[in-house]
């Protein structure tokens, strides 16, 4: 058995060894060892010459790895042995699947061949040389270099290096291209940030538009209800006058529209014609107002609420109760507070109020149901819903239950003041009515009742005065 095996030195040259017989082994001691093993026939069941004698075959790679490699070679696995054969230009014989299945040496056998490696031909072993390690350098960039052997094998064992090098080269970018990609990424990031900001602004604009739309819907619904009431009262008045012998022109028509009294924020309310000039918050036109004056404009823009109105606040939230009571007392109103719908019904059955502020979601009984019950015995007291649910369907539901208007939460003191002006500006506080002061204030009569013709006739003086 040989005691030495040729290994490459640090400078790429082969190490020259000496065998047992003292003969110079040259540069292919590895090949000579393999040749002697095959010639001895000691392991024919593991490795042997082929029938033609121009190649050898490893029949059992596992047995070759466990029995032959540890004793004769310095290789720990069969792959390392194959790589060593490739360095001496041995090539694996490629066979098809059918040829492997029909091979006399076994389906998992490996066959290797070299032109100068033949049976009983030891003299030709000197012609088998180790391939020189010629390297090819591939520059990836200024600091990275990929080193590749020029003489790579053709049997696919070491082709992993080629595939890895190709993958690296195909996926590697130089510095200018990297900086260009980096600038593109930064530009895309800035564009994404800009689009996010624009989307946020559009979302805010949509929310504002939705709020304005809800307000307009609320005002339109309130307008229709109020207009229907006015037309009914005017028809009663006409019938009464006709029954007393007064002639009514045949072409007399009634416009049941009224100006939208709750303007949308940051937008002017459209001016709509009306034959009832006593509607709240109506600004006189240029023909009606006569010479220009700043005093009427100030009064119209900043109306002053008459003190002494008695308001019922139906609310279960302590903070909302505190704030609303503070605002109402600031505007000269007296406040009585109840915290649920049942208490509100009981209170309204016993006492009269100028206005009711009704929350919707409350314990015991909700505000909408409580309002529908109140309307069975009181159709005159204005009831204002206070809620954050201002969808179209919710607004219709509240109005159908008998509520006059909706004060959307959260609201400011100005919103509350506008609501009070809308429903109390032309009314006389009930406390003054009880004291017998109604006759002393003909300019601010209470709103007419459905069947009270006398009150409708009494409203004629303020109508004429507002037209002046």
Automatic annotation (TrEMBL):
<dbReference type="GO" id="GO:1900101">
    <property type="term" value="P:regulation of endoplasmic reticulum unfolded protein response"/>
</dbReference>
<dbReference type="GO" id="GO:0043565">
    <property type="term" value="F:sequence-specific DNA binding"/>
</dbReference>
<feature type="region of interest" description="Disordered">
    <location>
        <begin position="1"/>
        <end position="20"/>
    </location>
</feature>
<dbReference type="InterPro" id="IPR036390">
    <property type="entry name" value="WH_DNA-bd_sf"/>
</dbReference>
<dbReference type="GO" id="GO:0006368">
    <property type="term" value="P:transcription elongation by RNA polymerase II"/>
</dbReference>
<comment type="function">
    <text>DNA-binding transcription factor that specifically binds heat shock promoter elements (HSE) and activates transcription.</text>
</comment>
<dbReference type="GO" id="GO:0005829">
    <property type="term" value="C:cytosol"/>
</dbReference>
<feature type="compositionally biased region" description="Polar residues">
    <location>
        <begin position="1"/>
        <end position="13"/>
    </location>
</feature>
<dbReference type="InterPro" id="IPR014402">
    <property type="entry name" value="Sig_transdc_resp-reg_Skn7"/>
</dbReference>
<feature type="region of interest" description="Disordered">
    <location>
        <begin position="275"/>
        <end position="298"/>
    </location>
</feature>
<dbReference type="GO" id="GO:0032993">
    <property type="term" value="C:protein-DNA complex"/>
</dbReference>
<dbReference type="GO" id="GO:0000304">
    <property type="term" value="P:response to singlet oxygen"/>
</dbReference>
<dbReference type="InterPro" id="IPR000232">
    <property type="entry name" value="HSF_DNA-bd"/>
</dbReference>
<comment type="subunit">
    <text>Homotrimer. Homotrimerization increases the affinity of HSF1 to DNA.</text>
</comment>
<dbReference type="Pfam" id="PF00447">
    <property type="entry name" value="HSF_DNA-bind"/>
</dbReference>
<keyword id="KW-0539">Nucleus</keyword>
<feature type="modified residue" description="4-aspartylphosphate">
    <location>
        <position position="359"/>
    </location>
</feature>
<keyword id="KW-0238">DNA-binding</keyword>
<protein>
    <recommendedName>
        <fullName>Transcription factor</fullName>
    </recommendedName>
</protein>
<keyword id="KW-0902">Two-component regulatory system</keyword>
<feature type="region of interest" description="Disordered">
    <location>
        <begin position="432"/>
        <end position="468"/>
    </location>
</feature>
<dbReference type="InterPro" id="IPR001789">
    <property type="entry name" value="Sig_transdc_resp-reg_receiver"/>
</dbReference>
<dbReference type="GO" id="GO:0003700">
    <property type="term" value="F:DNA-binding transcription factor activity"/>
</dbReference>
<keyword id="KW-0597">Phosphoprotein</keyword>
<feature type="compositionally biased region" description="Polar residues">
    <location>
        <begin position="286"/>
        <end position="298"/>
    </location>
</feature>
<dbReference type="GO" id="GO:0000156">
    <property type="term" value="F:phosphorelay response regulator activity"/>
</dbReference>
<feature type="compositionally biased region" description="Basic and acidic residues">
    <location>
        <begin position="449"/>
        <end position="468"/>
    </location>
</feature>
<feature type="domain" description="Response regulatory">
    <location>
        <begin position="310"/>
        <end position="424"/>
    </location>
</feature>
<keyword id="KW-0804">Transcription</keyword>
<dbReference type="InterPro" id="IPR011006">
    <property type="entry name" value="CheY-like_superfamily"/>
</dbReference>
<dbReference type="InterPro" id="IPR036388">
    <property type="entry name" value="WH-like_DNA-bd_sf"/>
</dbReference>
<dbReference type="GO" id="GO:0008361">
    <property type="term" value="P:regulation of cell size"/>
</dbReference>
<dbReference type="GO" id="GO:0005634">
    <property type="term" value="C:nucleus"/>
</dbReference>
<dbReference type="GO" id="GO:0006357">
    <property type="term" value="P:regulation of transcription by RNA polymerase II"/>
</dbReference>
<dbReference type="GO" id="GO:0034599">
    <property type="term" value="P:cellular response to oxidative stress"/>
</dbReference>
<dbReference type="Pfam" id="PF00072">
    <property type="entry name" value="Response_reg"/>
</dbReference>
<keyword id="KW-0805">Transcription regulation</keyword>
């Amino acid at each position: 058995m040989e005691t030495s095996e040729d290994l490459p030195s640090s400078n790429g040259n082969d190490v020259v060894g000496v065998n047992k017989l003292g003969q110079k082994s040259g540069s292919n001691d590895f090949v000579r060892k393999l040749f002697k093993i095959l010639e001895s026939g000691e392991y024919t069941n593991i490795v042997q010459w082929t029938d033609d004698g121009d190649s050898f075959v490893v029949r059992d790679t596992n047995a070759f790895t466990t029995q032959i490699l540890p004793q004769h070679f310095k290789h720990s696995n069969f792959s390392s042995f194959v790589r060593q054969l490739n360095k001496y230009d041995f090539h694996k014989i490629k066979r098809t699947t059918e040829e492997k299945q029909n091979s006399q040496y076994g389906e998992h056998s490996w066959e290797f061949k070299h032109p100068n490696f033949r049976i009983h031909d030891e003299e030709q072993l000197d012609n088998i040389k180790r391939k020189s390690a010629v390297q090819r350098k591939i520059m990836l960039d200024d600091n990275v270099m990929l080193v590749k052997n020029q003489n790579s094998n053709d049997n696919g064992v070491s082709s992993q290096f080629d595939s890895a090098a190709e993958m690296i080269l195909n996926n590697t970018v130089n510095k200018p291209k990297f900086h260009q990609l980096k600038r593109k990424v930064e530009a895309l990031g800035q564009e994404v940030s800009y689009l996010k900001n624009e989307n946020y602004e559009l979302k805010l604009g949509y929310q504002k538009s939705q709020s304005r739309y809800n307000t307009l819907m609320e005002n339109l619904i309130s307008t229709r209800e109020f207009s229907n009431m006015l037309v009914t009262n005017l028809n009663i008045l006409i019938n009464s006058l006709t029954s007393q012998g007064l002639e009514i022109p045949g072409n007399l028509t009634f416009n049941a529209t009224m100006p939208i009294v709750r303007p949308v924020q940051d937008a002017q309310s459209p001016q709509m014609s009306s034959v009832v000039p006593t509607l709240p918050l109506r600004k006189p036109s240029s023909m009606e107002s006569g010479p220009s004056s700043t005093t009427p404009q100030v009064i119209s823009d900043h109306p002053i609420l008459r003190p002494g109105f008695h308001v019922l606040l139906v609310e279960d939230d302590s903070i909302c109760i505190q704030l609303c009571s503070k605002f109402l007392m600031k505007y000269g109103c007296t406040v009585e507070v109840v915290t649920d719908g049942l208490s509100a019904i009981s209170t309204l059955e016993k006492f009269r109020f100028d206005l009711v502020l009704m929350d919707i979601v409350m314990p015991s009984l909700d505000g909408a149901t409580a309002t529908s019950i109140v309307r069975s015995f009181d159709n005159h007291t204005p009831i204002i819903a206070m809620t954050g649910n201002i969808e179209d369907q919710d607004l219709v539901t509240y109005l159908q239950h008998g509520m006059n208007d909706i004060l959307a939460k959260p609201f400011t003191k100005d919103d509350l003041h506008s609501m009070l002006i809308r429903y109390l500006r032309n009314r006389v506080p009930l406390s003054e009515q009880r004291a017998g002061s109604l006759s002393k204030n003909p300019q601010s009569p209470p709103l007419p009742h459905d069947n009270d013709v006398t009150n409708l006739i009494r409203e004629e003086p303020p109508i004429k005065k507002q037209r002046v």
